[in-house]
Amino acid sequence: MKLHAIEAGNFKLDGGAMFGVVPKTIWNKTNPADDKNLIDIAARCLLVENGNRLILIDTGMGNKQSDKFFSYYSLWGNHSLDQSLKDKGFHKEDITDVFMTHLHFDHCGGSVNWNKDRTGYEVAFKNAKYWTNQNHWEWATKPNNREKASFLHENLMPMQESGQLNFIDRPTSDFGFSKELGFDIFYADGHTEKQMIPHIKYKDKTIVFCGDLLATAGHIPIPYVMGYDTRPLLTLDEKTKFMNNAAEKNYFLMLEHDAHNQIITVENTEKGVRLKEVLTCDALF
Question: What pTM, to 2 d.p., does this model score?
């Protein structure tokens, strides 16, 4: 097995929204804001090369939205999904599976492109199976008012219309092995219904792709919960369990949204679980 970090782009989000009830005087120390109160955010994906399968975990925002749409997110930097795949020696047609932690636009937007004539949309990975779970699909396609702006019709329907959409077996608990993908998944409902957090056995390590359960290294303390979460009290419980496991089992936590820290480990301290070490993907993979 080989793992590759795929940098799909960078953008900015409001720091207050990213840290919920945590005061700016605290979160600004780890995630400094600009003069508009915006903090740096990454769209970092993970490519799993395993035998004859090439599994891409999340796909970033994509590039099909309008200039007005992207202006809300202050895009910056030179990363793109296509270029990052090319830099690793791959093309979109090589991808066999696209696994989506959840279907918010900044995690699955790159899964769908404009068609050649820009008259409609088509799947970006023509040879891939697209993976979500039925609970989350139903949640995303019949969205509540709070999340409606994050679940975009043009990101979702082409997956189904192409016949490439697949559901991972309905979970019977919050943690289990996916026989379809070959790795463990932690299911979390605080951010959105049935977000899937992959746990990948790599050599003698467990690499966890954290999705929106742990957005940045600055979110390590348990009460630091995003304002975007639909069930923040549930996030507290899920995060407590997850972070305690990460410290006790020495998980390597790959951060999807941290523009400046790619992978971290954590440890138990008198103040609770805290940052232990920062690593780069190149050093670990």
Answer: 0.97
